[in-house]
Structures are given as C-alpha cells and as structure tokens.
Design goal:
The protein is mainly α and about 350 residues long. The protein has 2 domains: about 1-180, Hypothetical protein af1432; about 190-335, no CATH class. Helices cover about 65% and strands about 5% of the residues. It has 15 helices and 4 strands. Strand 1 and strand 2 form a beta hairpin. The protein starts with a helix and ends with a helix.
Length: about 350
Amino acid sequence: MCSKLYFEEIDDAVILKKLNKLVKETFLLWDEVWVGFSWRYYFFNHTQRVRALSLKIGRNENVDLKKLEYAAILHDVTKRYDGRILTDSEGRRILDKKGFWHNELLMPKRENLVTTLYREYNPLHKLHNVTAAFLAEKILRSYGFPIDFYSSVSSIIKGHLRPDAYSEESSSNILERRILYEADTIDANLGLTAFFRHVNICTHRSLLEDGRVDLQEYVNRIEPWIKTKAFFIDRMMTETGIRIARERNERMKEVYSNMENEFQNNFIDSLNYGILGIIGYFIDHNQDPCLQDEMNYLSSTWIPEREKMLKTETDPNTKIIFQRAVNFYNLLSQELEGY
C-alpha cells in the first residue's frame, strides 16, 4: 500500500525533466565527435525526436504512454559506449546468437551517475539496448517507482532494436517495444531527419576519403539511397508506424525531385535561395553538427536574410525556389516534433 501511494505521488514532469538533463549530460561525457554513423550531438537530438514520435504513434495505438515515454528518454542512454562495429577478416559483422552485432567498448572521458551504474553492471561489451535497460531499472527504482513499472520500461528498452528478440524472457509490453522500435528506426532512416543524417554521413566520408565534398556527387547518391529505405517500411509493426513510414519515404522522394530539378535548371538560384542552399549549409557545418542549432540559424538568420534579398528579385521562379526551401524547413521542423 505504501509503495502504491508513493508511486501515485511521483511528479512525472519533474522526473522526466531530470532524466532529460541526465541523458543530455551523459552523451557529452565523451570527447569523440564522430563514431560510426553518429556524431556528438546526434545522440540527444535523436533521443528527443524518438520520444516525440513514440508518443505520437502510441496515442494512436492506445498503449501505456507513461512507460513508453520513460523508455524513449532512456533507450540510448548508454549508446556512446558502443564504439566501432567489429568485423571479421572478410569485413562481415561479428554477430552473437541472436544476430546482434559486437562493438568495441568506447569509454567516456568523464563520469556521472550513468557511468557509475555502468561500471557496477560490468556489461562486457553488451549492446546499448541491454545496458540501457539495466540502468533504467536502477535509475527508476531510485525514484520510488514500483517494480512492475521499472521492469516494464526496462523490457521496452531492451526490445527496441528487435522487439521480439527477447520474447523468451517476457512477452509483456510487446506493443510498446514495437512502437519504440518503429520511432527509432523511422527517425534514422525515413524522412527529412534521415535526410539530414545522410547529408552528414556522406559529407564526413567524403572529407575523410577525398578531403572535399562535390555537391553533384552528393546529389547523385540520394536516389539510390532512398530506394534502399523502402525496405524499412515493411518492417513497421503498427498501422500508425506504417502510415508515418510511407509518408516520410514519399517526403524524401519529393525533396530529392525538387533538388535534382533545381540542380539541373536553377543551380545558382537554388544555391542562394533553395533547398541546395540549405544542404550546402548543412555540409559546411559537418565537423560537429547539431541539427537543433542549425534549425535555429535557418529560422533566425538564413530565411529572414533571403526574404529581404527577394524584395529586389524580379524572377518569379526565384520565389518558388525559396518557398520550396521554406517548405523543406517547415517539414523538417514538424518531424522534430514527431509529425
């Protein structure tokens, strides 16, 4: 009875704010900017978007939103321990019995509550879904949550890479697991958040390999990349997840179509006013990118500057090109909020 009363008195808004702060702080304990397909500020930006998208899907699918939100905030809290993916002599990923890949263990340069608990767990190179699930139990129990709550959150986090991989351990919260998996997968692979990720990954690789970035070469890579992403639509598990995945895939196609058209027919205007200009801005800030900061710059400076410049433009096509760029920004902003 006392445990139930204490649980009812828990202020979720306060705790969620504290956890958000803890997660953000944790991702910055490492000095490495780029690791694999991710960069320093990607981890927290991604977590915020996955939280928003999980809740959107969850509302439509009638699941336990409270458990889902706590799981979304903590699902990647140990992700930065996952270093380079290990491969064999033929370049193939080294997999465990469940088909999960092995990573090098990347240790942080500084310490906090998460690193203390991680050291206590001594996970021996287990992936972040397993270690984050363990830490979530520890952290939520310290706030007074009952066992059925924190064990459910832990189960959701553990299953977010493959929702059915641990079905022999527990079949509970399977729908919440699937939704967190969907939100995590969609954000990284479908839509304009994935487009931003693709820009940065390609730019980073080009700079490492060639020391430069060729915009034409990048544009040529986009269509083949989009075609590979249709595969993820078939992996969605809820009606809402399928719908959002399809919408975001179509959005990527439309953006590419506009970019390719402008590249061929209005290259200079697009660099100055259009989507190519925004992509160019993203490319120029690839060394230590932060999507939220870059979106703030676009809204506070890039767009207003071009609105002033357009007052002296007489070509109506220039205004159309600029409006496409504004639409791109608005759609990306919506995805940041889970739409």
